Amino acid sequence: MTKQKSTWVKETAAFGLIALFLYLFFFVDLQQDQWNVPPNLLTVNTIFLSIVLEAIPFIMLGVFISALIQVFVSEETIRRVLPRNALLALFPAALLGIIFPVCECAIVPVVRRLIKKGMPLHIGVVFLVAAPVLNPVVFASTYYAFQSKPEIAYARMGLSFVAAILIGLVIWLLFKKTNQLKWSKEELMGKGPKHEASPDIGKWKSTFYHAGDEFFDMGKYLLLGALIASVFQTFLDRSILQTLGSNEFQSPAIMMGLAYILSLCSEADAFIAASFGSTFTAGSLLAFLVYGPMIDLKNTIMLLAFFRTKFTLVLIGVITGVVYILVLICQALIL
């Protein structure tokens, strides 16, 4: 297949997905009686649209920040601001989330751009898992959702900070300075991005070009991840979860799995977690709140698209193991 034909197929598929999304959004409810659509499919459609509509603003924020980094931040700047010691650099990376409150829907393009600009892999991973949790918006929503148990909000912040440091440390031990990004043919040949800033284009115009390219690049993976997550949410039998909710060892793992499947935005997941308060232990609720923003189903689709498969699977395993062990320790000592 020629490059021109391949581009045409991709663009056609992208426009088809957009058209399908708009049709489902505006017309499927009006024609459900005519088509006699099964209720489960309508539920899938509703959840799919809600995930996409919730994520799109944050995706736009993420790709715009990514474009600003591409145009305005040089490799030398990143190397200059980061501590030279690989371990000392873990702590400021974990605190970046306080300054840059980026949702997990938007964090992948930002981290990918930073790593391409020279940020070490393990530092990028720390920012990847910490930023969606360690920000004032998430703390406020968690504190409000758990007004009767404010210790949950404080434990969420503290546990997320410690987990991010440990995850980054493990990734550094496993991968050191190896490159785990997927690079395009043009990037490997040194041709660089499609829209470089120049006197004719200007930096701000170049920024919007980059943001537009990255938005459509990320958008198709968001749609795929949202579709898979909506199918799981619709057909998952939650009564099975409730029967296991009181076990101190099983319930954190179950709630982590639920957080992965539901793919909720970190700014809103505390209210969902609070609804399980009468069924699940405090430790399992904390596992839900810490694990979900760090890795979920739609985020996994995006990571697989832009990072090597082995690295992505190892990262998921490391996040899962670290969070689960820390939750058990916190559950035994504090909650």
Automatic annotation (TrEMBL):
Task: Supply the alphabetized keyword list.
Answer: Cell membrane, Membrane, Transmembrane, Transmembrane helix
Q: Which residues cross the membrane?
A: 12-28, 48-73, 85-111, 123-146, 153-175, 270-291, 311-334
UniProt-annotated location(s): Cell membrane
Name of a matching Pfam family: ArsP_1
Q: Which domain of life is it from?
A: Bacteria
Main localization (coarse):
membrane
Q: How does it sit in the membrane?
A: Multi-pass membrane protein
Family label: Belongs to the UPF0718 family.
What this protein is called in its record is Permease
Q: Which organism is it from?
A: Metabacillus sediminis
**Organism lineage:** Bacteria, Bacillati, Bacillota, Bacilli, Bacillales
